[in-house]
Write a structure and sequence with these properties.
By secondary structure, the chain is mainly beta. Helix content is about 5%, strand content about 35%. It contains six helices and 41 strands.
């Protein structure tokens, strides 16, 4: 089906097909800007010039923070009063902010707590923007000072990214303890604070946000989760009444806050529409939201919402059209776990973990609970399959925060990674065997939704404990594998290069960029395996992953591809089995949608995807081929 002209202009889809040989990225140029790791951050590092064998010996993930030029220390503003916001942040986002096709990094800072009479933020502790270098992909330059209002100085929590004014550039929405901020991108990674022109200056404690098209009108609307109502001037004392024993209070001590929903008029002017959309909750029954995710859970082409609440019932909102939602928490069985208990929802991720084509749901929780995997059974019904999927036991001791469902070994199945860290900094005083800093977890998927703990092979991801909060996936160095960014509470941000598991055979990955959020992508490999992915970012915790569609091909080739937009328009492409990428040096080779039913690749002479006269589908072949 040929797209309408308007949609064709908006769909500048880049289809990058890469060959990944053991996920080794080869020699890197050394960086002059190196981060000295703290004692708790001393993990395995690769040196410049390391070989593929060296990297695999070091483990699945290699700490590449120093070599990447990334240098950012999160500051909590911790006080003796143990104010809860101090231990909750902060987030980050992976996106292309300067339009060069490479993933950049935006990091949220907290800084001094905004208490009356407390130390002011002098402007030295602000959110940071690191741009992926033009010459060396995977090396980042600090562009914070040149980024305009992206150097935001609120007490930061989270961030959402999206093109809210349809100018082709990715904008920022930052959640804070205090007024939130909408920051518009001029296309050159310079941002302007336009919050005053909207209804978005929420002064409460907001946590996470989702930018998504709620009413199917082509622009991004906004859902903002709020956490709890606290009084910074008179914080309660929790823990033993002795010096050194005061601890952070459980959220049960505080009242929850209502989430808010805003409609975009298409020009980045947002108007609150929570009640009109059916998303309001009754006083005394508000959630304590930490994670929010937009996804099409019932496969009707509309974006639904899932909110992970802390220690109260989670909430599932099904989109019924025209920007209206209905509460599907009870019928979907996603508000509580299999025993009917609420849990301390923190991070959230979704994806097709069992190969049946629909989006499943994964939520991280507190210690003495498990993280929870809700399998999508269709017809808006879910089942808690955490135990049978192999994700229960290992997650009961740590406190889970950021998480991704991502194909981290590019074998075609979504794996699960979780970063952990306790809320209470002195938890060791109260419980033997528990600690503030904790090790991350990595689980490998067998393709049918059954997971095996692969943490021992994960290298730098699990080598040392950290006070983990955010975890975000994306191909940051352009080699086709999904790297990881970890944000702690009160520590240095870490960038981990994906070298692949030690036993990984040579494989390939296909990456699509530029697709509208909610686009459904189905791929068929040459071995017959089918993959289903959806375009758009995952929130993890307080942030977002790359929004690019990553299709792991393992050792196979790509046979067919179907792209279905949220409005129902669909295109199918057949690939010539004789034509497959072979060189890992090619990395990102973009397919460009030309608006006339063809995709072009400017590489070694032009390769063209053009309509087949016999089938009406598209077939990949070198330009000039007479087929």
């Amino acid at each position: 089906m040929r797209p309408c002209a308007a949609r064709a202009r908006r769909l500048w889809a880049y289809l990058a097909i890469v060959s990944v040989s053991g996920f080794a990225c080869g020699t890197e140029e050394p960086s002059s800007n190196k981060v000295a790791p703290t004692e708790s951050e001393q993990v395995v590092n690769t040196s410049a010039g390391s070989t593929e064998t060296d990297q695999k010996a070091a483990g699945w993930f290699i700490d590449a923070t120093a070599e990447s030029g990334l240098n950012f220390l999160h500051v909590t503003g911790m006080t003796e009063q143990r104010q809860l916001p101090e231990t909750m942040g902060a987030g980050a986002a992976l996106s292309d902010f300067d339009g060069d096709g490479k993933l950049d990094i935006y990091l949220v800072q907290s800084g001094p707590l905004p208490t009356p009479g407390g130390p002011p933020n002098t402007g030295s502790q602000v959110n940071a923007l690191f741009l992926n270098d033009t010459e060396v992909t995977g090396h980042f330059s600090d562009r914070t000072r040149a980024s305009g209002d992206a150097a935001h100085a609120g007490y930061g929590m989270g961030v959402a990214v999206g093109d809210v004014n349809d100018d082709g550039s990715n904008d920022l929405f930052v959640t804070n303890l205090g007024p939130d901020a909408l920051l518009l991108n001029n296309g050159q990674a310079v941002f302007e604070d336009t919050t005053a022109k909207t209804d978005l200056a929420d002064k409460r404690w907001t946590s996470s946000a989702a930018l998504f098209d709620a009413d199917a009108d082509g622009d991004l609307d906004l859902y903002v989760s709020a956490y709890v109502d606290i009084d910074l001037t008179d914080p309660p004392w929790c823990g033993r009444q002795e010096d050194g024993w005061r601890s952070y209070c459980h959220p049960d001590v505080f009242e929850g806050l209502a989430d808010r929903f805003y409609i975009n008029d298409g020009t980045a002017r947002f108007t609150e529409a929570t009640q009109q959309a059916g998303l309001s909750t009754r006083p005394g029954h508000h959630g304590k939201g930490l994670g929010v995710l937009a996804a099409d859970f019932d496969d009707d082409g509309l974006q639904d919402l899932y909110v992970a609440n802390d220690s109260v019932e989670n909430r599932m909102w099904f989109n019924v059209g025209d920007g209206r939602f209905e509460d599907g928490t009870l019928i979907s069985a996603t508000g509580v776990n299999v025993r009917g208990l609420t849990e301390a929802g923190m991070g959230v991720a979704s994806g097709d973990i069992d190969g049946d084509g629909d989006s499943d749901l994964f939520v991280t929780n507190f210690d003495d609970e498990s993280n929870t995997l809700y399998r999508n059974d269709g017809d808006r019904l879910f089942s808690d399959v955490t135990a049978s999927a192999g994700l229960d036991a290992e997650s009961r001791l740590p406190v889970g925060f950021g998480t991704v469902l991502a194909d981290l070994d590019s074998d075609g199945d979504l794996d699960a990674a979780v970063t952990n860290g306790h809320i209470i900094d002195n938890i060791a005083l109260y419980h033997d065997g528990k600690s503030y800093a904790q090790r991350a977890l990595l689980f490998s998927n067998d393709g049918e939704g059954h997971f095996t703990d692969a943490s021992k092979d994960a290298g730098a991801l699990t080598a040392q404990p950290m006070v983990g909060r955010g975890l975000y996936s994306g191909d940051l160095d352009g080699d086709g594998s999904l790297d990881l960014l970890l944000t702690p509470s009160g520590g240095h941000v870490r960038l981990l290069h994906n070298a692949g598991p030690p036993n990984l055979p040579e494989g390939r990955a296909t990456i699509l960029t530029g697709l509208p959020r909610g686009t459904r992508v189905e791929a068929t490999r040459t071995d017959g395996k089918r993959l289903t992915r959806r375009a758009g970012p995952q929130p993890s915790y307080f942030g977002q992953t790359s929004d690019r569609v990553h299709l792991g091909l393992g050792g196979q080739g790509l046979l067919a591809l179907t792209i279905r937009l949220p409005d129902g328009q669909e295109w199918s492409y057949n690939f010539d089995p004789a034509w497959q990428p072979t060189s890992s040096a090619e990395a990102f080779v973009p397919f460009r949608w030309n608006g006339k039913g063809a995709l072009q690749i400017p590489r070694q002479g032009e390769i063209m995807m053009s309509p087949s006269p016999s089938t009406g589908q598209l077939s990949v072949h070198p330009a000039g081929n007479d087929r």
